Request: fold
Amino acid sequence: MIDFRSDYLEGAHESVLALLAQHNMRQSLGYGEDAHCARAADRIRQLIGCPEADVHFVSGGTQANLTVISAILRPHQGVISATTGHISEHEAGAIEATGHKVLVLPEQEGRVSPQDVRAMVQAHYDDASFEHWVQPGMVYISNTTERGGTYSKQQLTALSDTCRELGLPLYMDGARLGYALAEEGTELTWTDLPKLCDVFAIGGTKQGALFGEAIVVVNEQMKKDFRYIIKQKGGMLAKGWLLGLQFEALLEGNRYLELAAQANRLATSFRDALQAAGITFLTPSNTNQQFPILDNKALDALKDKYGWSTIKKINDTHTAVRFCFSWARTQEEADQLTQDVVAAVKAL
Amino acid sequence: MIDFRSDYLEGAHESVLALLAQHNMRQSLGYGEDAHCARAADRIRQLIGCPEADVHFVSGGTQANLTVISAILRPHQGVISATTGHISEHEAGAIEATGHKVLVLPEQEGRVSPQDVRAMVQAHYDDASFEHWVQPGMVYISNTTERGGTYSKQQLTALSDTCRELGLPLYMDGARLGYALAEEGTELTWTDLPKLCDVFAIGGTKQGALFGEAIVVVNEQMKKDFRYIIKQKGGMLAKGWLLGLQFEALLEGNRYLELAAQANRLATSFRDALQAAGITFLTPSNTNQQFPILDNKALDALKDKYGWSTIKKINDTHTAVRFCFSWARTQEEADQLTQDVVAAVKAL
Amino acid sequence: MIDFRSDYLEGAHESVLALLAQHNMRQSLGYGEDAHCARAADRIRQLIGCPEADVHFVSGGTQANLTVISAILRPHQGVISATTGHISEHEAGAIEATGHKVLVLPEQEGRVSPQDVRAMVQAHYDDASFEHWVQPGMVYISNTTERGGTYSKQQLTALSDTCRELGLPLYMDGARLGYALAEEGTELTWTDLPKLCDVFAIGGTKQGALFGEAIVVVNEQMKKDFRYIIKQKGGMLAKGWLLGLQFEALLEGNRYLELAAQANRLATSFRDALQAAGITFLTPSNTNQQFPILDNKALDALKDKYGWSTIKKINDTHTAVRFCFSWARTQEEADQLTQDVVAAVKAL
Amino acid sequence: MIDFRSDYLEGAHESVLALLAQHNMRQSLGYGEDAHCARAADRIRQLIGCPEADVHFVSGGTQANLTVISAILRPHQGVISATTGHISEHEAGAIEATGHKVLVLPEQEGRVSPQDVRAMVQAHYDDASFEHWVQPGMVYISNTTERGGTYSKQQLTALSDTCRELGLPLYMDGARLGYALAEEGTELTWTDLPKLCDVFAIGGTKQGALFGEAIVVVNEQMKKDFRYIIKQKGGMLAKGWLLGLQFEALLEGNRYLELAAQANRLATSFRDALQAAGITFLTPSNTNQQFPILDNKALDALKDKYGWSTIKKINDTHTAVRFCFSWARTQEEADQLTQDVVAAVKAL
Reply:
């Protein structure tokens, strides 16, 4: 059985394990103050063209999100997010547990629009008793989004401009950043990120690492004392060098984007073949997550051979599901899946 | 340079890396619901002789502590800890960030005494306005303690009895549990733990794993919904099987205690040799942490060759330091250190 | 100018001030442990026919809500509320500041329906990764609702039954409880409340007191240590007797409901006259809050003489507003308002 | 029986009730945006000679403390306080419930010393792993202290200078501010406060009001959005004008200080008479709280006629107690008490 339920079902890319084996018995300083973290941080600063950025490594995505958001907001502020935002739906109230409301906006392919952000902020201050409402204090986005969508350079620029005009820091959760930067035809590149975001995360877990995310703090005002907050929230690994080492391996040459591009290619060729077979999708996607709407009987026929996530019941006979292609999937596996899905649908 | 600053400076025991390499590319379910976690949990239940215990795995020690404590306490309650307790001193306010006060008691070799716990609880309820004080709600201990001390079976039984009489859940942080259970001559064993504690943690990070701690929930009332809280606090690893797999490797046969016993042997022979040379210690210890009081000039002579932690200035000429022997240290390294320290002191 | 913006614009009913003047210089124990609080609590227990209920007094409504909710929920749980619920919209994130998400449901005249509660709970447990979502932990309702609606005895019974079946404590915010119990024709009475709710609040501020709310804890499991949490959240007044004394005065005989009934009568006769004049309403209401939809020009003509709250822009020419009739309004004032509003509309 | 247990056992000074009666039925805007609050704030700004200060009114002292502290601190910071500080001992963990540790220092008559503050800050940054400790983020003091002590102008200036040098905001809890400013011989005046403190509170509850404290925000950086946080923490009274009105009455002319001076005079003449009779005190005090150490048999003889607080058991025969003289006590009552205490001691 090949599982397409998520992109975190395997371990790490071989380059990660090789580097780990090489350094395993060498002594490294704890808590991220080691040479691996220093080198990985330097590599990130080089990639993004921002020598003054602060780079931290934490153990997971929820950690990254709750640490960044609680570091930025004052007590009366909330974080704006799409309804589908990971912090809104998938983190068991991690943000609220730090004292802050998630202020939700409608999503387009998982994206937040500048218009909706502006409207929410205006509605807030237009209210006669605005001090009785949670104040919008920052914007959270994910790129790739939870719906497989991405921000084009133009879209991210427009959102960033609006945030700056409104005084709202912009944080981009990049748990699947590689898939976005490797999207075919995108103009968005590493060097745009520090220009457009105040803080962003570069995902490891879903991009070839065993675990771990890099947090890049660009905004000068948000740098101070960040490590205290990582420690307090439980995100500071004793053997922090494990995190640095993994990013060293993944960011060597163009590996990070190549792994993602390969997954995107498999996913989009799967998509194209299904579309050619007349299958519709819940939402368009050029990245490694695909959301076809399939007949329940076809799903039933496929279920012993493949795994996927159920997203939404469409009607009594059809369900929207997600097939997620990890960096570890091969062309052969993708072709087999494509063939089997199309066959199952045609067999109805 | 050999660094004795801590026991988390190396990677993992070779058995861990071998098992990881073997399973790296196999797909495993996420979030701890995989076969590795199931097997490691079964092995723990078998070791402790408690088939009904719940076992969870989290990424680190601060995670384990803040998750357990916030899961147990009601909002108005605090956690009793020794002044030297990890939660009191070393976690950047992680417990307070979940809303709870740490109520500190004096320590003896890092231990909390039943008498002090009882006195604190009595003082609380004796106060006419006790509802204006934080209510003692549970007891936190570490074993091995932060001072290298351990609880004998008798001491832990007495504390446990007192806690039960007072209605206080007892949580034992076992970040260095192996060193305590492997202490020469101790009567405390794996099977005592579920009888005496409501919840306890089994450390991985300082005991041969890359990272990770196991949380064992024995008390029936504390089992419900525990996974939600792990998720909320950011301790639920996407690739949770990495944690289970490491404990599988470490708990195979008697490996966990053998690794610890080896470190204890090196540490206590170092201690004995220093004592024979007339060097005194801040606090007695039979485990892998040793706290000699050394002349600053001797330390100066040693500092290019060895690393250690500074614990406390004793006077203008002497400092209490900590040498921490990890599972990865060899007899040869320990002998060399011993010889050099004794020589440095004699050379004064 | 007569302000109908809210029902908390005046001070207290004369009986409150009289009792205060009488006792002002007598010494009373602090923090709610005085004879006034004892008598007021006894009176409440008598009214509701529940001798075993615990009664506490706090300084305000947000205090009452955040104290009750944080006392009931475990960290991973959220509170279900209508979108219009006071805790969802009007308390500046007070609930989130205690660590809990507000889980919103659609409202009908401000009410939550049993069907929606059940559907939310089912959707939660139907999700494969339900532990990644905030667990529904209790239900918050207000009665009278923020939209002037009330729960009939049948509606409240149905909701209560559903909550019990689902294991969800039910908390009723009674900031405007009097207006609900005094609604013409309602079958809901004081003695129904402890049978149907686990905890409920009896409002003072909007019902004739200077300030203060009574919290009635019926559920045995929620009684323990409640005073600690009141103290911790800042709701425990040093001169707590001020709160007890006010409820003593207001709950004497049938005063509490009579004051509310008078306000309801004025409000509903205003409503009837406007309806007779062809004016429509945003939402039906039999209580002291009325939500007519008025032409902006009419509002402009009225604005120097009367105050009201703007609720919602309906279209370019019409706005839904709220006229709130306090216990302190007279028939004469209400008649004048009615006449002026009808005239303003007719003059268009 | 005359109760000297505290200074909040009576209602309000007659001027407060008179003003309340006069305005009770007039309509006032809610939430502190009324004319009474505006006038009281102006009066405070005039008294302290600081026209740019922001003034807010909240319902009680714990409210004031938790609101100010949570508004100032970032998540990883704690508040420095004397061990006897109200926030450390008497607020049921209110500060921790907002996520922050109270960092305690030894007290001298309840005061914090500049030397101790400096030493704590230095110890923090001297630690190699300082990011694992809670960062000292501000200083909390009370004046009058919980031990009846006060800060002289020189002491407060020295502490303020140290705080500014160290970058620590200084917050003064003035629940008993009047007694400090009215201390015989003190050089500290209203106009010193905004020069030396970043934020301070002016107490109402213990100084002649029914309830309520004024918060004065001097530091420009702490002014922004303060009302949101008051609302969120439940301290924003719907009928906020009740708070403004009380301060209007109390701050008329020199009433606030005269009421306090009268209480101080009664207390210090009581003290002098006891000292003349050979009775010793736990701690010196020139203000309305006195802490004699009395024979338990004498206390037993007095207990039907007077109330007091037990502070500390001194030995098997003696106890330190507190007699607290409110603004409402008369010369006659104080004389009677003095006479009876001295007689009880002499009768032994």
